[in-house]
Write a structure and sequence with these properties.
Distance between the termini: 10 Å
Number of helices: 13
CATH class of the largest domain: Alpha Beta
Radius of gyration: 25 Å
CATH superfamily of the largest domain: NAD(P)-binding Rossmann-like Domain
CATH architecture of the largest domain: 3-Layer(aba) Sandwich
Low-confidence stretches: none
Helix content: 25-40%
Largest sheet: 7 strands, parallel
Number of domains: 3
Number of strands: 16
Strand order of the largest sheet: 8-7-6-9-10-11-12
Mean pLDDT: 94
CATH topology of the largest domain: Rossmann fold
Order of helices and strands: EHEHEHEHEHHEHEEHEHEHEEHEHEEHE
Strand content: 15-25%
């Protein structure tokens, strides 16, 4: 098959920030793309300078891809978030510019789940306090406040990929598992879904949070919710920092209404390694604090890099948006037309989701005497996306005609 695309691969420039695992850069370079990598999260001004000529942008959780950044990135084809969350990117603006945003929601599932289980055991055995005492030269073999997790009830808030994996691991340790989710989810093993968050907080010996950042989850665990928890129970948050009201948690820990907590995420996090960390929960007894490392294992980061870069490559090469979080998901197999005159032209067309756009496209193509041999259209919110394969013709002319449609956001000829 012919491999000609609208952008010669050697001219496609990818910028990967925040120390994305080298496996990602290797994949992109193997594809023939130019790749620039940086370790930190640049501020808006520096980011604008970096993306002005970039076709692909890769970020983790700290880089803020604002409307100003997106407006400056005139050549930008797609953004890859090398993590689960995508709230660091203005998804609406990106979508309305025809820029798909991809993430990697499943690649670090096991790493986060393992950290959660480790923290649950450490909290029950008060391992952090014991370790701190030992480093201070204090030998204390007391069993006071130390418990097995076997037979304890684990309450999981958010029974998605991570929450359900935690469920399986916890049951293997002999824990009873209950969970709450906004959707009805099929339980794994002997886990049981409860009707409300209040029911879960009341019955659980340890509560672990695995929810996305959204308007409905922001501050969802505050003073009122903590009061519903069992005296001496534990709270684990490895999801998003804004889910827990830190002042309320700190008060409950100081008053010993809770037995301890483990936090890997915080409402405000340092921008980099050298910046200081401040929090009301620093220095409190039986509190485990980690610097947003839930998915930071070598295995998870390599898997995330490969997953996100594979999605970026597939979009650049064939227009596939499967896994995009802000535009319609479209995947049209490439049409091999070598038997009747050559490979079809493939055209990608992002447009405003209003009536009549598809009929205008069909009329323009028919007016050129060109046949459509494959088509896939989907819409999402205010954006439509169609992938068209047309019989061999003057593909550039077809592209320019489609770009003339007033509702067109972006159109691209692949081959």
């Amino acid at each position: 098959m012919a491999s000609k695309t609208s952008y010669p691969k050697e001219k496609i420039r990818a910028v990967l920030l925040e120390g994305v695992h080298p496996a990602g850069a290797a994949l992109l370079r193997d594809e023939g793309f130019q790749v620039e990598t940086l370790a930190g999260a640049p501020d808006e001004a520096k980011l604008i300078a970096l993306v002005e000529k970039a076709h692909l942008l890769g970020v983790r959780s700290r880089t803020q891809v604002t409307p100003r950044v997106l407006e400056a990135a005139r050549n930008l084809l797609a953004v890859g978030c090398f993590c689960i969350g995508t709230d660091q990117v203005d998804l609406g603006v990106a979508g309305r510019r025809g820029v798909p945003v991809f993430n990697s929601p499943f690649s670090n599932t096991r790493s986060v789940a393992e950290l959660t289980i480790a923290e649950i055991i450490a909290l029950h055995r008060r391992l952090v306090d014991k370790s701190t005492q030992m480093h201070a030269g204090v030998w204390d073999k007391s069993a006071a406040g130390a418990h097995e997790v076997r037979g304890r009830t684990l309450g999981i808030v958010g029974y998605g990929h991570i929450g359900s994996q935690v469920s399986v691991l916890a049951e293997a340790l002999g824990m009873r598992v209950i969970y709450h989710d906004v959707l009805s989810k099929m339980p794994l093993g002997n886990a049981r879904q409860v009707k409300s968050l209040g029911d879960l907080l009341r019955d659980a010996d340890v509560v672990t949070l695995h929810v996305p950042a959204s308007a409905s989850t922001r501050g969802m665990i505050g003073a009122a919710q903590i009061k519903k928890m069992k005296p001496g129970s534990y709270l684990v948050n490895n999801s998003r920092g804004g889910v827990v009201q830190i002042d309320a948690l700190a008060a409950a820990l100081r008053e010993e209404r809770l037995g301890g907590a483990a936090l890997d995420v915080f409402p405000v996090e340092p921008a980099g390694k050298g910046e200081g960390f401040e929090s009301e929960v620093r220095g409190l007894a039986n509190v485990i604090l980690t610097p947003h490392v839930g998915g930071s294992t070598e295995e998870a980061q390599a898997a995330i890099a490969e997953d996100a870069c594979t999605k970026l490559i597939r979009f650049v090469n064939v227009g596939t948006t499967t896994g995009a979080v802000n535009v319609p998901e479209v995947e049209l197999p490439a049409q091999d037309r070598e038997g009747d005159g050559g490979r079809a032209h493939r055209i990608l067309h992002f447009h405003q989701n209003v009536p009549g756009v598809l009929s205008k496209m069909h009329a323009l193509i028919a007016g050129l005497g060109v046949n459509i041999n494959a088509e896939y259209l989907r819409t999402r919110d205010d954006v439509g996306y169609v992938v068209l394969d047309v019989d061999p013709t003057n593909g550039r002319e077809v592209l320019e005609r489609l770009r003339s449609i007033p509702e067109t956001i972006r159109a691209r000829l692949l081959w």
